[in-house]
Predict the 3D structure of the following.
Amino acid sequence: MEVFELILEAVENSVEAGASHIDVTVDSEDGRNRVSITDDGCAALPDAPFDAGCTTKGAGRGQGLSKICNESGGCCSISRLEGRTRLEFLAGEDKRVGDLSSSLLPIFLFPVDISLTINIAGKGFTLSTWQLREHDAFPDRAGAIGRFRELVQLKEGEIYG
Amino acid sequence: MAKLSLSDLRSIREREEKNLKKRDIHGRTVHVVVAMGTSGINAGAKLTLNTIADEVEKKGLDNVIITQTGSAYPNPEPVVEVFSPKQGLVIYGNVDKETAVRIVNEHLAEGRILEDKKIELKEEE
């Protein structure tokens, strides 16, 4: 599984918790990915958020955080401070980054403000909903989808040259 | 499978109207929604969404807007919903890459519903 599929799970969770702004940071070093997702959602935190089926969303739901916990080998935590909820987890060497443009497209289609920072071996970039709007690259329509892919490629170039 | 009730349709319409209000739709009349969520992602919804996006881009379908939503459990995922003023709401299940290409080429571009991939939404128990 790709690390961004886990991030997609986490971002969806934030959106369903009522978040309007989400910050995602991925620090990748020596094949290990440290991920942090902070949001302003206000849903109540359950007692055991990483337990499968622990949810207020109904039958068959509540699998996302449990999946993150399993995939991170239990290296995960969730906390809330001053109205901001922070989820952190580690994803190991087998959690490859994958094709960035395809991985980021579903994340940026959420109707909330997202700021995503990726640092790989000391080099990095930030991509945000605000930047996408500025470049008319919000990937929900013809034309903008192509601009989105080009923008992600350009950003990737800042890491890989 | 249970059929959609009027209240289901009303809540879907309300949800989509709310989502669309957040976007600058500029006369885009066809709305494509891909259900992601844990079960959708496990079933390959990421590839489905990217394929639809790339095909819409390739064909330059200016009247289409793409969004995503949460889980479509317990329906056969990946699930794709297409809303259009002419044909109303059509829901497709088991949308793999090949079906995603067909949805764009046949339904979105030519207005032909893929009868063999259409599903009726199953309600959560």
In short: Chain A touches chain B at residues 5, 8-9, 12, 15-16, 58-61, 63-64, 67, 102-103, 105-106, 109-111, 139-143, 145-146 (CB under 8 Å).
